[in-house]
Amino acid sequence: MARKLYKDAAEALDGLLFDGMTIMAGGFGLSGIPENLIAAIRASGVKNLTVISNNCGVDGFGLGLLLENGQIKKMVSSYVGENKLFEQLYLSGALELEFNPQGTLAERIRAGGAGVPAFFTKTGVGTLVAEGKEVREFDGELYVMERGLVADLSIVKAHTGDDAGNLVYRKTARNFNPMMATAGKKTVVEVEHIVPAGTLDPDHVHTPGIFVDRLIKGAVFEKRIERVTTRPRVAAADKASA
């Protein structure tokens, strides 16, 4: 079996990065993002990237690090509302954006991983989303054609992996990561825990190792909260009166 386990993010990405490439990056908000691999991509200095991800992190963290370092040329996303720098770059024309309805983005990635070059969906018909795309009628309803997405590299975050590359995700981190793992020409994964092959229950494996080319145990996971929302505290006097 080919070697899959690498010592760190820089070694795992060695020979895979080049200017102008397309990278898929897992995560939803800041949940389940491949923090260590993103940091290594920033350190590499690779530029003119097209990045496919649900969002672009936040200012100073996640994919926001690549954005502030001038490494991203184009984003293919569905939500970009938490990043002020993203807004500034887009409005100034310094950053290209291909905006997708979130379900359409997910299906474009899934289709790419399944070898489906295109599909039809009702989402976006009659809106800006459909401009320049084929619209076809099926059973009396209009559908817009969307292309499947593939990338030169997928970077993925999982909770546990074995040294054969089988992966298990944890809770919300099981978002775009599983489908992106299938849609990259090369897939590099960072995990929190490494276990020996044969340890994982096959029924619990979310991504089979056949889709994983390289694997690392992440060095550091900050796991930031994108937007902290708490219930207002009730003053003691208010409690007493209640």
Overall domain count: 1
Integer-rounded radius of gyration = 20 Å
Describe the biggest sheet? Answer: 8 strands, mixed
Q: Provide the succession of SSEs.
A: HEHEHEHEHEEEEEHEEH
Net shape? globular
Derived structural class: alpha/beta
What low-confidence regions span 5 or more consecutive residues with pLDDT below 50? Answer: none
Termini Cα gap? 67 Å
CATH T-level topology: Glutaconate Coenzyme A-transferase
By CATH, the architecture is named: 3-Layer(aba) Sandwich
Helix content: 10-25%
In DSSP terms (H or I, runs of 4 or more residues), the helix count works out at 7
Number of strands: 11
| CATH homologous superfamily title | Glutaconate Coenzyme A-transferase
Averaged pLDDT, please? 93
The portion of residues forming beta strands comes to: 25-35%
Give the arrangement of secondary structure elements.
Blueprint: H1 9-13, E1 22-25, H2 35-44, E2 49-52, H3 64-68, E3 72-77, H4 84-92, E4 96-99, H5 102-114, E5 118-121, E6 135-138, E7 141-147, E8 151-162, E9 167-168, H6 177-183, E10 184-195, E11 214-217, H7 236-241
Task: Note down, in words, how this protein is organized.
By secondary structure, the protein is of the alpha/beta class. It has one domain: Glutaconate Coenzyme A-transferase (3-Layer(aba) Sandwich). 23% of the residues lie in helices and 26% in strands. Strands 1, 2, 3, 4, 8, 9, 10 and 11 form an eight-stranded mixed sheet that branches. A three-stranded antiparallel sheet has the order 5-7-6. The mean pLDDT is 93.
